[in-house]
Amino acid sequence: MKRKLLLLLMIMTIALSFTVACSNDNGSDDSNKMKVALILPGKKDDLSFNQSMYEGMMAYADANSDKIDLNITENMYEVSDIEPALLDFADQGFDVIIGHGFQFMEPLVKVAKQYPDTIFLLGTGYKFEENTAIYDVSLQDGGYQMGVIAALATQSNKIGVIGGADVSEIYRGHEGYKLGAKSINPNIEIQEVYTGDWTDTAGAKEAAVGMYDSGVDVIWHSGDGIGLGVVQAAKEKDKYVLGNVADQLKLAPENVLSGVVYKWETVLENIFNDIENENIMNLTDEERFYIITAENGGQTYAEINDPKGWLASDDLSKIESSWNALKAGEIDFSVIKEPTN
């Protein structure tokens, strides 16, 4: 009797499993989904440039799981490795291939020419093919806000900014930072360093330590591995640091004052809508730029964390007013000129 009951239970379990499998597969034929490859230059949990795109792409993919089949590759930083990776995904028949970073530009436009039916998306850059589009950040918005916060918080009248490569969006961010700081205090001293390499954590830390030792007490960094170095320096010197791309408070709760936060999902929906409607290849170069800004909600800033008590209530009001002006498009950035390189 027990053996018959056990057999019956096994049959019921198999039948139930089959039913669940069929129900999960109902209406979700993977062959009809858009195959998307996201290639990140760093780790998806870096609390910076890579994590912001990973989270934005995952949010979009989860909301459109019936339409998107997503593949993610991490730590593809070296230019020499990028072209083979792009070719591999294109050969596998991926519909959309995303290279998340400026270093992807040259290999991406080269491979795009060889696969005219594949859509290639470039994270920051300026070169196009007919089957490519670019998503970028109006970093002067976030930079301006960080400059305002730094200028209001500093006790020494000396602030700093540290970047990786001196490329277009980072240059704009740094210039926005200077503009924001000088809107508060035209005579503020601003020190600036580019390490030349996004992954140079040690070099960025050394530069930050030098700034702090010279009297700087607030530094904004513009992302990736260099950011980790600046945060480490802020902890060692017990000064303030402003983050970029993601909220980095948990890295140094006593030293991270605020930071720019990217929301890539703000433009991802527009990009994929255009891809679905077969519009990408019909757009002008200007229309194939998808930019996250303060105005469209693609940028915000992390909640102010001021354990040192350097910001008064009036300062906090000025910070909020500054952000409202940015969201309303009231800040004039025409004085910022693109770099000549």
Describe, in plain words, how this protein is organized in 3D.
There is one protein chain. With about 350 residues, the chain is an alpha/beta fold. Helices cover about 45% and strands about 20% of the residues. It has a six-stranded parallel beta sheet with strand order 2-1-3-4-5-11, sandwiched between helices. A six-stranded mixed beta sheet has the order 7-6-8-9-10-12, sandwiched between helices. It is globular, with a radius of gyration of 23 Å. Residues about 1-30 have low confidence and may be disordered.
Please report the first level of CATH classification, the CATH class of the largest domain. Alpha Beta
- What structural class should be given to the helix and strand makeup? alpha/beta
Strand content: 15-25%
User: Count of helices?
Assistant: 10
Could you give the order of strands across the largest sheet? 2-1-3-4-5-11
**Which parts are unreliable, with pLDDT below 50 for 5 consecutive residues or more?**
1-28
Helix content: 40-55%
Q: Order of helices and strands, N to C?
A: HEHEHEHEEHEHEHEHEEHEEH
How many strands in all?
12
The major sheet is characterized as: 6 strands, parallel
Search tags:
341 residues, alpha/beta, 10 helices, single chain, globular, disordered N terminus, Rossmann fold, 12 strands, six-stranded mixed beta sheet, 2 domains, six-stranded parallel beta sheet, 43% helix
Tell me the layout of helices and strands.
Layout: H1 2-25, E1 34-39, H2 49-63, E2 68-73, H3 79-91, E3 96-99, H4 105-114, E4 119-123, E5 132-137, H5 139-153, E6 158-163, H6 168-184, E7 189-194, H7 201-213, E8 218-221, H8 224-237, E9 240-243, E10 256-262, H9 265-276, E11 289-292, E12 299-301, H10 313-327
Parallel strand pairs: 1-2, 1-3, 3-4, 4-5, 5-11, 6-7, 6-8, 8-9, 9-10
Antiparallel strand pairs: 10-12
